[in-house]
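Hi there. Long-time user, first ticket. I'm pasting a complex I've been working with (about 864 residues overall). I'd like to know whether the download I got is complete or cut off, because the file seemed smaller than I expected. Thanks.
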Amino acid sequence: MGSERRSIGIGLLGLGVVGAGVARILQEKAAVYARQIGYPLEIRRVLVRDPKKPRDVAVDPALITTNVREILEDPGVEMVIEVMGGEQPAYGYLLEALQAGKFVVTANKEVMAKHGAELLATARQRNVDLLYEASVGGGIPIIAPLKRDLLANDILSVTAIINGTTNYILTAMSRGVGSFDEVLADAQRLGYAESDPTNDVEGIDASYKLSILATLAFHMDVHPEHVYREGITKLAERDFAYARELGYAIKLLAIARKRDGAVELRVHPTLVPQDALLANVDGVLNAVEIEGDLMSRVLFQGPGAGSLPTTSAVVADALDAAVSISNSVYWPHSFRREAGLRVVPIDDVRSRYYLRLRVADQPGVLARIAGVLADARISIASVIQRELEGDGTAELVMMTHEAPEADLRRALDGMRALEGVDAVETMLRVRP
Amino acid sequence: MGSERRSIGIGLLGLGVVGAGVARILQEKAAVYARQIGYPLEIRRVLVRDPKKPRDVAVDPALITTNVREILEDPGVEMVIEVMGGEQPAYGYLLEALQAGKFVVTANKEVMAKHGAELLATARQRNVDLLYEASVGGGIPIIAPLKRDLLANDILSVTAIINGTTNYILTAMSRGVGSFDEVLADAQRLGYAESDPTNDVEGIDASYKLSILATLAFHMDVHPEHVYREGITKLAERDFAYARELGYAIKLLAIARKRDGAVELRVHPTLVPQDALLANVDGVLNAVEIEGDLMSRVLFQGPGAGSLPTTSAVVADALDAAVSISNSVYWPHSFRREAGLRVVPIDDVRSRYYLRLRVADQPGVLARIAGVLADARISIASVIQRELEGDGTAELVMMTHEAPEADLRRALDGMRALEGVDAVETMLRVRP
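Hi, the file is complete. Here it is re-exported in full:
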C-alpha cells in the first residue's frame, strides 16, 4: 500500500468472549493506538457463525460476515486476528491467510501446538509474522520475552503452571475443601471448569502449551504427542496432607528440560518444595519459570486466562504486527532447528518419588517393601506409616532418592505382588 | 554501510565484571549470534581506565584503549555498550555516542534515572535506539516487556523489590539472624553489600530504578528527586516479629501508582501480606509487579544482579540493536508524554499504618493514644500491648485503617507530646 496508506486493515475471525474484547479495545483505544503506530487499526470484517446472536460489543453490522472468503481474499485485510479456538477450521484459515501474505495473530494453542512449525515456516516464506502470545499464559507476556531472551541465552528448562482450572482444583484440595469430584463440581459452577473437563484435568491443554514453549525454547518441533502426560483425577485429599507434612505442595507442572543433549517433556502432578515460588502460585494464576545459561531462573506470573488478559496479549501482538506492516519491514526471529535433539522416554527420566501404599498392618511388610526397593537399587529418603481406621490396614508413605522411572516401575510391580500390600494408591514425581 | 557490510562494530565502555562478561559471551557465542543476526558482532575497541590491570577475559590487547575518542569518533563503531557505571563520565560519553548516530546499550541506572529523558530524545532525533534492559532488575526481562505491554495497556501501578542488598538484609532479619548492623556486616562479608552501603540501604538505588520504570510506565519524566524515599536502617528485629504475628512480611518496596490523574512515587519499608507473591521474594532476588488495565497483575521475578544475569540483559539488548542496524530500520517506541500528570506529595498518600510505641506501663496511656488518633479521624484496626523487661515500660503495636499521611504525622506529633509515651519507635506503611 506504501505511501497511500491510510489505515491497517484487520480481519477478525471470531466474536466470542475474546473476540468481543479485542473489538471493544480496538475501538476504545483507537486514538491512542493510532498515535503510537502512525495509522489507525481498522477492523474491516468480522467472521461469525451466527450473525443473529446477540453480542455485548457494538460492531457495525455491515462488518459482520459468515463467509471467510470475504476476509481471506480481501487485499485490504493485511492482518488476520484469529480468536475462534479449536483445530478446524481455524488451522485452514490461518494457513491460507499466511499464504496470502497476511500477518496473523492467534490465541489458538491447539493449532499452534499441532501445526505451529508448518505455519511459522509458511510465514517465513511469505515474509510475514505469525504472533501467538495469547496461546500460552493468557495475559502473561511469555512468548515475546522468550523469543528475545533466546537470542542471548541457551534455554536449559521451562517449568510451568499453565492450566488455571487444574491449579484452582489443586489449590482447593490442598486447603481441604473436598475431594477431586467435589472441587471439580464447584469449579464447574463457578465457570472455572467446562462441563466436559477432560482437556484440563487430563493435562491435554497443558501439553499443548508446553509444546509451544518447548518448540520455541529448544529449537525443535515439539508436538503434543511427544509430551508424557498424567492428569490430576486420581489424587486424593490425603496426598495433599502427606505432601504438606513432608514440606511440599502438589502442582500440575509442565516441564521441558534439556539434559545431556536430549529433552524431557512431561506434564504430571508434581511435588514442589513449599518454599519454591511455583508452590505459592495458587488458584487460577499461571506461572512460567525459564532457566537460561546466562539469565539464571526467571519467573513470569499472572492471570492465565480471562477475557481482558487474553485480549491484552492479542492486542499487544496486533500492535507489534501493525508496526511491521506500517514500516513495511519485518525481521524474522531465527528459527534454526537444532539437529539431533531427541525426547527422553519417560522410562529414562530420573526423579525422586512420593509413594503411598495401603498395606496390611502386620510385621514384616515394611521390610519386604524396602527389600523390593533395594533390589531395584532405589534408596528410601523417608517413611511415614499410619494405622487406618482399625480395619487391619495401614498406610505407608515413602519418599525415595533419585532413580530412573523404569526402575521405580519395576519396583512398584514387585510391591504389588507382595503379600500384605493391598494397593499402590499414588506415585508422584518430585520437582527436579 | 549498506551492501558492503561485513560485521556490526561495537565499542565497549568498561571491562569490569559485567564488561568482561559481555566480552566473553560475545566471543563464546559469536557463531550462534552471527547466524541469528546475519552478521558477526565485532568488538572494535574496549575503553578501560588502567590497561595494565589483569583481567579474567582474553581481549586482544590491540583493542584496549584509554582514549574514548577512538570509540566515539570511529565511524566503524555503530553500537556503544556502556558498562562503566556512575553518572560521569558515562553520561557525557553516551550523549556524544547518540549524537554521533550510534546505537547505545547501557546498564547504567544512575545515568538513565537522571538523564534518561534527554538521552532518549537525542536517540529519537538521530533515529537510533537507546536500550537499557540491564539498568533495572539485572537478568529479569522487564523494560522490553513493559514497552510492549504499554502499547496495549494503560499501566496502573508498578510495585517492585528492586534492590537485592536490602532484600537480603530484610530476609535475614525476618529469620531472626540478627540486628540491622549485624546482618549488614554479614552481607558485606559475603559481597552482597558494599563497604559504603548508603546507596542501597537508604533506598537511593531503588529510587533510580523506580524513576526509570515510572518514566516508561506513565509517560512522564520522573527523576529520582520526585521519589519519596525512606531506607531500612531504623528497622528493629522486633518489628519483624510483630509483623509476622499480624500476618505480614516487611519489604523495601518501590511503588509507582496512578491515582486520580496523579502518580504516587515512593520507596520505603512496607508491610506486605504474607500470602502476596512479593512477600515470598526472598534473599537477593528481585521482583516487579505490573498492573495494567487489561492484563491485570503480572509479576516478573528473578536474579536482580550478578555478572551473568546482567550480561544476559546487555547482550539481549545488543542483539536487538544489531537487528535494527543490520536491517537499517528502527521503529521508535512511542514516547508520548502525558501532560498534566503530577506527583502526589507524600502528605496526601493514603495508607494503612503499623505503629510501634514505647509507653509507660500505667493505666490511661492507651486511652490517651486512642484519643489522639480519634481526633485525627484515624481508626484503629488492631492493638498488641506487651510488657517489657519489668522496667515499667510496655510496647504498644497498632495497625490503623487507611488515612492520609499528613493526618497520621499530626497524630504522631500528638502522641509524642503525651504523658506516658516514651517514644514512637517505628511507623511503617502497609502495601496498597
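A couple of notes from our side: The radius of gyration of chain A is 25 Å. The mean pLDDT of chain A is 93.
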